[in-house]
Write a structure and sequence with these properties.
With 222 residues, the chain is of the alpha/beta class. It has 2 domains: 117 residues, Rossmann fold, CATH 3.40.50; 95 residues, Winged helix-like DNA-binding domain superfamily/Winged helix DNA-binding domain (Arc Repressor Mutant, subunit A), CATH 1.10.10. 40% of the residues lie in helices and 25% in strands. The chain contains 8 helices and 13 strands. Strands 2-1-3-6-7 form a 5-stranded parallel sheet, with helices on both faces. A hairpin with a 2-residue loop joins strand 8 and strand 9. Helix 6 packs across helix 8.
């Protein structure tokens, strides 16, 4: 998944990016609201992590303005711990709120919870026909067979799983999986797709190449 982190504390931002990258997420970093607006104009994000006090304004004002046209889930990050601050952020359009300093494991759990809610699920699982894809454990379960995936494979399969039956172009996959500062080509996408295809075939999932358009996931129901 691709996240946008809006945070002017460079040390904290680098730590968050490093932690999320371990789980295979791509993170673009903006230090100001202006930079955040540029990022949102150029790319689509699965989740926004938004600081409150930024050099060029209040993140909550940015949130209110953005909610008129932006459906992307937002978790507000702030040092303010008063109940009124939390309630205000939620009423202004935030999907969740976490107070600094925070434990990275809690931040990851809140990210997963927000994405689950937006996906209409209460669990970290996606059913792909007879196959259960556990996003947290990084496994595919079919009957008694369990397949463990690597972090990049988890994130790539998640993109396909959240868009069942939809053809995903190479550029769309690049946009969902990599941040701006990651040098990647369409050939790299072919490599990642090829690796995932070989891995998931054993549980009856297939990634079909649609010539000239991209890829889509197919499920063997047998």
């Amino acid at each position: 998944m691709r996240y946008l982190l809006v945070e002017d504390n460079i040390e904290l931002a680098e730590a968050v990016i490093k932690r999320l990258a371990l789980d295979g997420h791509a993170v673009d970093h903006a230090t100001t609201l202006s930079e955040a607006e540029d990022c949102l104009a150029a790319a689509s994000y699965d989740l926004i992590l938004l600081d409150v006090m930024l050099p060029d304004g209040d993140g909550r004002d940015f949130l209110v303005r953005s909610r008129a046209h932006l459906a992307t889930p937002v978790i507000v990050l702030t040092a303010r711990s008063q109940v009124s601050d939390r309630v205000g952020a939620l009423d202004q359009g935030a999907d969740d709120y976490i107070t600094k300093p925070f434990d990275f494991s809690e931040l990851e759990a809140r990210c997963r919870a927000v994405l689950r809610r937006r996906g209409g699920s209460a669990r970290n699982e996606i059913a792909l026909g007879p196959v259960i894809f556990d996003l947290l454990a990084g496994t595919l379960q079919r009957g008694t067979e369990t397949l463990e995936l690597r972090s990049r494979e988890i994130r790539l399969l998640e993109v396909f799983a959240r868009h069942p039956g939809q053809i995903m172009s190479k550029s769309q996959l690049m946009d969902r999986l990599f941040s701006y500062d990651t040098a990647v080509t369409e050939n790299a996408i072919e490599v990642y797709v090829g690796r995932l295809r070989r891995r998931i075939d054993s549980v009856g999932l297939r990634i079909e190449t649609v010539r000239g358009l991209g890829y889509r996931i197919e499920i063997d129901a047998a």
